[in-house]
Model the fold of this input.
Amino acid sequence: MKTVAIIGAGAAGLMAAEMLSQTNLHVIVYDAMPSAGRKFLMAGKGGMNISHAEDFSTFVTRYGTRQKHLEPYLNAFTPTDLRAWLADLGIETFIGSSRRIFPKEMKAAPLLRAWLHRLRSRGVQFSMRHRWLGWKNNDTKKLIFDTPNGEQVVNVDAVILALGGGSWSRLGSTGDWVSILREQGVIVETLQPSNCGFNTAWSDYFKQRFAGQPLKNVQLQFGNFQQKGELMITEHGIEGGLIYAASSLIRNAIFETGKTTIHLDLFPDKTEDELMARLNKPRGKTSTAQFWRRQLKLDGVKAGLVREILRNDTLNSSELVVQTLKKLPLTLLAPRPIDEAISSAGGVNFDELNTDLMCKKLTGVFCAGEMLDWEAPTGGYLLTACLATGRAVGLGMATWLAESYN
Ligand SMILES: Cc1cc2nc3c(=O)[nH]c(=O)nc-3n(C[C@H](O)[C@H](O)[C@H](O)COP(=O)(O)OP(=O)(O)OC[C@H]3O[C@@H](n4cnc5c(N)ncnc54)[C@H](O)[C@@H]3O)c2cc1C
Done:
């Protein structure tokens, strides 16, 4: 019986194990952490958004320039297939108002429990606390692990690497694999933060007063990107779903020019004329703060932002205030560190892989999941692509082994 290793017990690795568990191979899943699926569980914490039910032709565009690379795998495992797979596992799903797909229970834990139970019952073996360090003597069939019992060399017939990206390293995905693959001549694009927050230079006053507060119902404009949503003010700058959605564009712009400016519409449901009409009402002796609050319900963090941008002696100019409310410029200086990001961009370059996602330079070594060079916004696109590529390497490896040893 041939033995195959899957290193990384995240969404991609477990899906690869699922495919291989239906063959006559001996499948062992290794992971550095004490238990499987730590990031998967974290993704389920605030409500697990596992996929998206928008039209498939739109769905695949969310992968941007990597659409062409991922489309074959997503075509073979669409969001509809994903829902059917979950149903088979006993996990009911529903489509939310934004067309996002969630397990009915919203949580990842019941899903992971059912999944691991099925994998074990099909003979998949799990070896946790095994940190992969590389190959012995550059032989891809000899895996070196750091284990609680010291360093061990394991002989396998083929290996799937599903080692994740570089964010939230405390959940296991440290990105240590980058240097191991580069040493073997595999081109790996530098891991960068994706779906991340950004630094900006708040005044001390603004930071102390508003860090930790949400900025609700704003529209973000950056180049052709325009979307309504919510942001969070942080000590360092901003984060939250709305900025994550534009984060790859903003990150790339900062990379090119050192910094960049986004614009926020603080009143996306009101026109400039409507705002102007209210601010042009007689003000009497009321203070600016009272007047803004009474006329526009403008106070708190939104009022604070206007004061961050305009000089005190210009706060009585209705034109300037309205301009700022509708197009507030915010200069972003740097993405937040990768460890804080929801996901990472960069990874194994697709030109290094064949259509089964096997490394062209490393026979019998397959790669899947977030460690490949793609990124996508939040909304279930990340997990769907991890599962779809995990499925592809599992099937690809089974076919490759059957063909190679016949
Ligand atoms: C807070 C948060 C919320 C998220 N929410 C969502 C969401 O709602 N929807 C969505 O689609 N996506 C979400 N994501 C992203 C999603 O969870 C990831 O994209 C996905 O889990 C990546 O799966 P993966 O299998 O490629 O890698 P991972 O899940 O990162 O698994 C990689 C595994 O490899 C192991 N490993 C790494 N190096 C080694 C080594 N040298 N030796 C042995 N083992 C090693 C790690 O311990 C880890 O278990 C979220 C992420 C975060 C951080």
Remarks:
- Residues 7-13, 30-33, 38-40, 42-43, 48-49, 131-132, 162-164, 167-168, 172-174, 176-177, 342-343, 369-370, 378, 380, 382-383, 386 surround flavin-adenine dinucleotide (CB under 6 Å).
- Residues 3-194+344-404 form a domain with the FAD/NAD(P)-binding domain fold (CATH 3.50.50.60).
- The two ends are 14 Å apart (CA to CA).
